[in-house]
Amino acid sequence: MKFKTIVITKKKLTGFAAVLAAAGVLAGTAAYFKARGAEVLPVFNADKPNYEEILDEGLSNGGEFNIKSFITKLLGFDPREPETILKEFSPVMDDSTAAEYPQDTAQAAEVTAEPAENTEVEEPVSPENTSESISDPPLPMPEQIRTSTGLSVNNASSYSVDVDRMCAENLTFSNTAGEPLVLIVHTHTTECYDGDQMAGETERTTDDTKNVIEIGNVIQSVLEENGIGCVHDITYHDYPSYQGSYTRALSTIQSNLGQYPSIKIVLDVHRDAFIYEDGTKLKVDRAGCDPPASQVMLVAGTDSMGLSHDNWRENLKFAAKIQNAAQIMYPGLMRPINLRTERFNMHMTPGSLIMEVGSNGNTLAEAKEGAREAARAVAAAVLSG
């Protein structure tokens, strides 16, 4: 889901002033990215170089930071010990879209706090069976999915949660033949995979055969193969303007819910990203599988930031069931569930989740295989109730 990472060493950073300096550097390079055309998209809005634009609203990947002060919470990083300054540009502070989408004015309050210290990119677990990508295992029985021990959660919220107990509970929705149950959307529609070396540093493209729309196509196909009705909305929300992506995505979700009231699940499909200090990019793989598959991370929001979100426990319950089903069928596929303080539009249905398929170091082929496997876990969770 991350859009852009700029690495700055600790020695080069001297307090908060460096943030503004970095913003100025990015503004000055906007013309360069613009000149590269639609295939590689601009990374900064030079016309609105306000401070809020450079805050990171995004998702955890490595847990590199600690929240040490109010300023740290506001900025999303510790200015005294940063590994990165600008990881993404905030889509929740877009004044230009507030009047157009008044229903989401509260979304502007979602300033990012970094995830809890226990957030780590875990090494993939080698599966016992390396051939399941060629010959899929049967979908787990409902009692298997409802029996879990030690599901892993990186909890950035203030809530204490027992996902193993949640996994044993029934979902509040079920599949109905002939009616769509699932909506697939993409808040950051142009995210793609730099492991193919086809998009440069920006890792964004308007080629729908290479960005996360293609990942959504895979998920839709698998769900429909399992008798689950699915709507895939391929509306662009991050192009031509990246800012306001979540506001525009909410409008898309509301429109689809109005048209298809049977929808209870909204999967916002993204691609994660992280760049280390040596310039290498995060690559998350399920070890030992053939064909190679990227790992997948489920993100659930909460009402910790004060925004109304009555569905967050139901969302988390659904994530727990998917996580458990995936562990049964494809060990090592899933990264820990990421429980956040933000809500990320997940307040709309009891089955709303962000699905991070792969990262910017993965290839599209790896991401498509990871998406296919994760989609089968979603189907198993839905059909087991």
Would you mind describing this structure in some detail?
27% of the residues lie in helices and 11% in strands. It has two domains: 6-109, no CATH class; 142-384, Aminopeptidase, CATH 3.40.630. A hairpin with a 6-residue loop joins strand 7 (285-286) and strand 8 (293-294). It contains ten helices and eleven strands. With 385 residues, it is of the alpha/beta class. The protein has helices spanning 17-28, 30-35, 70-75, 95-98, 142-145, 163-167, 212-225, 245-259, 312-329, 364-384, and strands spanning 6-7, 84-86, 153-155, 180-185, 229-232, 265-270, 285-286, 293-294, 296-300, 337-339, 351-357. The strands form three sheets. Strands 3-10-9-11-6-4-5 form a seven-stranded mixed beta sheet, with helices on both faces. It is globular and about 45 Å long.
Characteristics of this structure?
Aminopeptidase; alpha/beta; two-stranded antiparallel ribbon; seven-stranded mixed sheet; about 375 residues; 10 helices
Task: Summarize it.
The chain has ten helices and eleven strands. The chain has 385 residues and is an alpha/beta fold. It has two domains: 104 residues, no CATH class; 243 residues, Zn-dependent exopeptidases (Aminopeptidase).
Please specify the SSE layout and strand pairing.
Blueprint: E1 6-7, H1 17-28, H2 30-35, H3 70-75, E2 84-86, H4 95-98, H5 142-145, E3 153-155, H6 163-167, E4 180-185, H7 212-225, E5 229-232, H8 245-259, E6 265-270, E7 285-286, E8 293-294, E9 296-300, H9 312-329, E10 337-339, E11 351-357, H10 364-384
Parallel strand pairs: 3-10, 4-5, 4-6, 6-11, 9-10
Antiparallel strand pairs: 1-2, 7-8, 9-11
Helix pairs in contact: 7-10, 9-10
